[in-house]
Design brief:
five-stranded mixed barrel; 300 residues; OB fold (Dihydrolipoamide Acetyltransferase, E2P); three-stranded antiparallel sheet; elongated; alpha+beta
Length: 300
């Protein structure tokens, strides 16, 4: 182990440095008169020694344990941090998407080096209350088949959607369970286009930006299978009109999507175009790198 590595471990990360500096500045700026002097003791008893202000403050605000232990989670993305560490974007069941610093994870003998892999169910422990936590431990849980070949790229597409559409520290336990189920379906070679449509729809519903597709927003009546509709990204389905530039789909497609029934080839084709449009709207037009790779592969 190099002296540089030892030195890095002894240095606090940027978040801790900022917090420590803020604490020092706050203490220096506090007026000394803010802590009242103790009243004089009665003449018959010796005067008690004053309680130091720092100790009194510690008694008033005891340190709160910010550790989270044994949380189910998956690695979404990671990138290098300093010489031997990683910053890891993780999707957890009870805390949503979080960022953690995995200190020393790039070292050859680090336990974390082989554990922090995508699509592996993990039990993680972390601490801290800032936007970037410190990873304490991570263990592989097992119980899932690995995903391979084209399914692997589909998995990276799911991860990119979660990174770009989920806010930090916003729990979505139902979406987490759906993510696990989707990885299992991909591992068992379920049709990718159906698996992805189900997850895309679940993602928009769980984040609160998807309306009920079986209701016409203009009339509140149920959509008719034989009629043509467009889906307003901010309101929901309505009858298609002349001049609409949004994807036009049948009422049957909307009903099938709401019921997760994708056996009809027309439903598969129309739902693909519709979900591509709705996701692009939510992303503000930002491209999805993995989607373009998938499109290129399909054209080979």
């Amino acid at each position: 182990m190099s002296g540089q590595d030892d030195q890095e471990d002894k240095r606090p990360d940027q978040v801790q440095e900022a917090a420590a500096a803020y604490a020092v500045r706050s203490a220096d700026a506090a007026p000394r008169s803010a802590v009242a002097a103790p009243p004089p003791a009665p003449a018959s008893t010796p005067a008690a020694a004053p309680v130091p202000a720092a100790k009194a403050e510690r008694r008033r605000t005891p340190a709160r344990d910010t550790r989270v232990l044994g949380q189910p989670g998956f690695v979404l993305h990671s990138y290098p941090y300093k010489e031997t560490s990683l910053i890891v974007d993780m999707f957890t069941r009870d805390h949503g998407r979080i960022g953690v610093v995995a200190k020393g994870a790039k070292r050859p003998l680090s336990k974390l080096r082989g554990v922090l892999q995508t699509f592996q169910p993990l039990s993680i422990s972390f601490s801290g209350k800032s936007e970037l936590r410190t990873l304490i431990d991570a263990d592989w849980v097992g119980g899932m088949l690995p995903i391979e070949k084209t399914a692997l790229l589909c998995g990276f597409y799911l991860n990119e959607l979660l990174v770009k559409l989920l806010a930090r520290d916003d729990p979505h336990p139902k979406l987490f369970d759906h993510y696990v189920a989707t990885l299992n379906e991909l591992a068992h070679n379920e049709p990718a286009q159906i698996v992805l449509r189900k997850f895309e729809r679940a993602l928009l519903k769980e984040t609160g930006v998807a309306a009920d597709l079986t209701r016409d927003t203009a009339t509140r009546a149920r959509v008719e299978p034989g009629e043509l509709y467009v889906v307003d990204p901010e309101r929901g389905a309505r009858m298609a009109k002349m001049g609409d530039t949004w994807p036009v789909v049948t009422g049957k497609t909307l009903i099938d999507m709401e019921n997760e029934q994708y056996g009809d080839p027309q439903t598969q084709a129309q739902s693909k175009q519709l979900m591509r449009f709705l996701l692009a709207w939510q992303l503000g037009g930002a491209p999805l790198n993995t989607r373009q790779i998938l499109i290129d592969l399909m054209q080979l």
